[in-house]
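User: Quick one: structure for sequence A, then sequence B.

Assistant: Sequence A:
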Amino acid sequence: MSDAADRDSDRDPEFAFELRVCRWAERAWHPDGPRPAFVARQLGTRERRWDTVVVEVDPEAFAARRALSTDGFDSDLLRVVRHAPAEWAWYRDAVPEPDFPWRHVVPAVHRAAGLGLVEKRRGSRNRVEYRRTAPYPDWVERVVAIENKPDLDASAARALADQLEHDVSRALADEVWVATEVTGRRVEPALLEDLPVEVGILGVDGDSAEVLWHPSSLSPDPADARRRLVLAERAFDRGWRNYVDTMRPDCRHFELDRRGRALVPRCAAKDCYQSQRECAHSCPSFEPEPPAWRMKGWPIEGGPGKGVRRILEARRERERDRAERGSENA
């Protein structure tokens, strides 16, 4: 990992900026004062995908959720685990009626049992019965969406306006923000653009951010509780460092550059911050790590590329621990 402190003044491409925003949110959320939370990126629904998602949690309940599993639950698994009864019951009596055939619920019961999340048995009339091993906690406090635009000029603001109007009217998130890079002008350009007044604006400068415009608190529909929980589970599962899963850290040119407190992927061959689209199997500059690299201080099961994955995974778990403790971010 190289030190790019001398390049910290450069304006980042959108992908690198997005990672810096995620790292800032992980360390310093919320602008009004520290709140236990974790961060994910590129999540949403069929209608809308957000750049950054911050899930604020109840620390004690979050600890109980982590005790259930360190992996996120998909929609089917969540339905079964969340409604698992304390005593043996036929699955149809425990789970709210789905909008699809009941037969599709049974595999999720078997899967949950295989993961140790519930117990199952054959009851009377050979019915599938199950019960919980531990209650599913009410761990999500709030869901916050952030759109990242390092250069929020007039054209970028126009492109965002309709999406943000949708976010405000739909109110799936409790708050909506736009993060942009500060310019140092007397009046930041973002404040002059035609954005919904309910949307907050964050000015990002290096490792810090300031509130240029405070958001309004939205009122999510109680009917969306399950959708919000599915979103939170996906965020818990993925985090924001999962970008490495679709990149090539096993390439000899792959680096993690320091941008302040964030580690941002950089390509030494192209001398640029790459994106997931650029750092792919089709990249003509890809060169696999030399075998000798895997024998110089790195664990025998892999070279620097494997090490990058372990570093990012360890950082994700450390931040989960921080949210669980409910301590102030540092």
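Sequence B:
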Amino acid sequence: MNRYVVLQQLGDGTYGSVALAQRRDTGEKVAIKRMKRKYYSWDEAMNLREVKSLKKLNHANIVKLREVIRENDTLYFVFEYMRGNLYQLIRDAERPFAEPILRNILYQVLQGLAHMHRHGFFHRDLKPENLLCVGPELVKIADLGLAREVRSRPPYTDYVSTRWYRAPEVLLHDTHYGAPIDLWAVGCIMAELYTCRPLFPGNSEIDQLYKINAILGTPSREEWPDGYMLAETLRFRFPTCAGVPLTRVVPTASPPALALLAALLRYPPRDRPTAPQALRFPYFAVGATLVLPPPASRTRRSGIRAETENAVPPAINSTTQPTVPTPLRDRFADILGGEVVHSARRSRAGGGAARGRSVLAALHVGGAPNAGAAPDETRPGPGAAAAYLGTSRYVAGARIDTALFHPLAFRTHRETTAVGSGAARVDWAAKYLR
């Protein structure tokens, strides 16, 4: 610890305190977390969940752990320094943020969350205080002290996350929850960013459930049978509430924002989108309201795909019936413009594309026909939307179907700028994706 000079105390929590410090040799400012508990061996320190998760997670939107120091049986975590957190940003805002700024914040949170879930961890304590930021331009997920591995075996503790951001299954003491509780917390944070006030500010677990029911309405037994089983175990009866339209709860949100918020705040955990699915919602597809080229009729995306589709099926013995697996139905096909194929359903042969509806099939630039495709089946020519989205950084992943954006009433005078008009276009994701 003699390499650092402590400048000031930043905060004190249950498990440790955080101080602002500076390296003596480079002058770099860091945040040092001092654990209150004593650690008598390195093995004990390295087995901490926060250390195990941060050692595996390296992403622009997850706070970086510089080093771990154990001195006189006291453990110190040296993190990169971030000036504030999202709670302070909301509290100090003179007026509500514009939607492009909020979209930038949520995009970064979901990017970090998708990386975390992809590598087998879920956070369990997402809240504005645990989202560090340097203004709205850069946001990072922090405080992974409660993070758990997705592969770890339940039961989990039912007292996780701050009450206002706790998913209903956790409030009902479900011990077999998983990553969807993080998406519920993102929905609560999203509404709070728009309104500058908590969405469900309950003062107890029962009051928290009542506030959720008052806004979202009472779930039906057919919709969430597991929730009713948990409630009966606790002898809790859901109040009869009709709910309030989200347009009244978050009046400044656009229709694409309300569609994402409604999906994140669904009672059954299995009905909430995953973080990668949330990133493919129309809310993040800025600029897609430009004039789009007509979609290709049956464009084959690769030679492997063409060979697979044109292959002669093997002969089937008349005495045996082939077993056809039941396809998994994507619950967000209506929003994402077609069935989204999950990784478990991808073709193994050469890493071929999945059999779902491609999301960027209509945006490939170039007029040459696909390999293995018919001569009359060509890719659509380069158009304004193709040029725009081809260089855009806020369309996550590689799968967006342009056809799904036609019925959405975007505010084009605020959200988009016509390509080729000479007006400057601001890439709100460029600052932290460089």
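The chain has 16 helices and ten strands. Confidence is low (pLDDT under 50) at residues 289-328, 338-434.

User: Thanks, that's what I needed.
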